[in-house]
Amino acid sequence: MLLRHTNKEILEREALTINPAKTCQPIGAMYAALGIHGCLPHSHGSQGCCSYHRSTLTRHYKEPVMAATSSFTEGASVFGGQANLVTAIDNIFTVYEPDLIAVHSTCLSETIGDDLQQIVTKAKDDGKIPEGKHVIYAPTPSFVGSHVTGYANMVAAMAEQFAENTGKPIDQINIVAGWMEPPDMREIKRLAKELGVTIQLFPDTSDVLDAPQTGKHVFYPKGGIRVPDLKSTGDSKSSIALGCFSGEPGAVALDKKCKVPFKTEDIPVGLRATDRFLMRLSKAAGVKIPESITDERGRLVDLMTDMEQYFHGKKVALFGDPDDLVPLTEFLLDLNMKPVHIISGTPGKRFEQRIRAILADTHADANVKNGPQADIFLLHQWIKNEPVDLLIGNTYGKYIARDEDIPFVRYGFPILDRIGHSYFPNIGYMGAIRLAEKILGVLMDRQDRDAPEESFELVM
Ligand code: SF4
């Protein structure tokens, strides 16, 4: 009993969060920044914050995550961190030679009131930013929002500070990536290629946080959108934002600055969200969906129908990031499963509205909550009151899974104790096949484990 203090009785809490279902804004900003080629993320705050952000990303991706810090001490904490950041920018361009630095703030620098725009302008005026190099910045105060908010803020900063409308339209579609894994970003590019559509995907962490081992250390791996491509997004025909929490703010910024119209779709997790994304992309580019992709869809539908008996009616509890949970809930319904408890630590009204709308016809009585008090402790209490057959969430769910003896599928961020999320896509039809396979695997393992000897089946 690792979580022995979790009791069944649920008390209304207004301020206290226990075991949050989210993490800190700068982690998202750092992850997004790594999706630009040659970028060194910079944490404007204390060394401790930067170490935490780097180590969380490193543990999730099993890759070294480079980032710099303003290294606040007592002086900077009282008088502000301008001198630290200007010196840092000078040192970083001299020693580490990135193409750009992406600065995000922290709780401490936000509390002091440091103005990143003003400090970066000063660094520029002082000649600390070499010709052809760039510094972008995003506010990421972690006392509000979550890692998803931080990611969205940095993506919006990319659009605001890089996109240019030259007046010469380019026949390309922007895909503003919500928080997805590197193999998911690669999968988006593969799908676009199959459709024959030219896209600009940003950010793009493929080949950065899943870079191949070559025996040689490269400070800036080959992946990531290049600065000229990022600038060209202002001349694109239109944008598709993936995820209204993590992707949409970037598309809004692009529309505001360069008048590039956009549509928002869910991150293509599962059958219907992938259908919608592909239809949107094919319509935006004026192309047909090729047979190769229709075949992938057919294979997913085949799996779903063949295995329906094992999915049917199974109760599921899930927690994680809103842009994942919305299409994931929809996919669980398509598998004829019953999502009964759904939690996201990221605040925002649209989450509950979307989930309620998805569940309205079949499971209107499900427990759904998001925001600071929607924590893993509450999820555990809900499970104690109404047990489930399956738990889906990040690594922190393993304690509940063990205590309550529930089959567990790791999904989301962070996953600290398994691999796979860095190698195989979770999105598109192929990602849905993988997810269904993982769910089936744990459900069948449970069935095998619990079956009495006389009904222990060789063939399922
Ligand atoms: S929550 Fe605030 S203080 Fe804590 S690591 Fe994140 S930025 Fe730093």
Automatic annotation (TrEMBL):
Domain of life, source organism: Bacteria
Gene Ontology CC: molybdenum-iron nitrogenase complex
Claim: RNA-binding is one of the keywords in the record: no
Top enzyme class: oxidoreductase
UniProt-listed InterPro entries: ChlB/BchB/BchZ, Nase/OxRdtase_comp1, Nase_comp1_CS, Nase_Mo-Fe_CF_bsu
Residue ranges constituting the Nitrogenase/oxidoreductase component domain according to the UniProt record: 24-443
Record's keyword terms, sorted: ATP-binding, Iron, Iron-sulfur, Metal-binding, Nitrogen fixation, Nucleotide-binding, Oxidoreductase
Cofactor: [8Fe-7S] cluster
Gene3D superfamilies, per the entry: Nitrogenase molybdenum iron protein domain, Nitrogenase Molybdenum-iron Protein, subunit B, domain 4
Record has Iron as a keyword: yes
Cofactor, free-text remark: Binds 1 [8Fe-7S] cluster per heterodimer.
Recorded family membership: Belongs to the NifD/NifK/NifE/NifN family.
Function, in words: This molybdenum-iron protein is part of the nitrogenase complex that catalyzes the key enzymatic reactions in nitrogen fixation.
Protein name as annotated: Nitrogenase molybdenum-iron protein beta chain
Taxonomic classification: Bacteria, Pseudomonadati, Chlorobiota, Chlorobiia, Chlorobiales
